[in-house]
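Sequence and structure are no longer studied apart. As an example, we show below a sequence and the tokens encoding its fold:
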Amino acid sequence: MAHRNFKKEDFVKNQSGEFQLEFQEGNIGEGVDLIVERKNENGEYEVLQAEIKRHNKLIMIRWSEPFDGRILFDE
């Protein structure tokens, strides 16, 4: 699986108070098999069940707080 790393600074607070990260659909595949992982204090990744939504060819990941992590996807 391919992956794309992101930093907590990449998140933007939305109108409902959640933090949101956006990807273009073409940059991370179609979004069928997306896995969101958060990097912990030991530098290891743990899987999250983050809310993932689509809108206008964007894939949005939402969480209650920003975090460093990565998204895994099929190429």
The chain has one domain: 2-73. Residues 2 and 63 are 22 Å apart (CA to CA). DSSP finds no helices and eight strands in the chain.
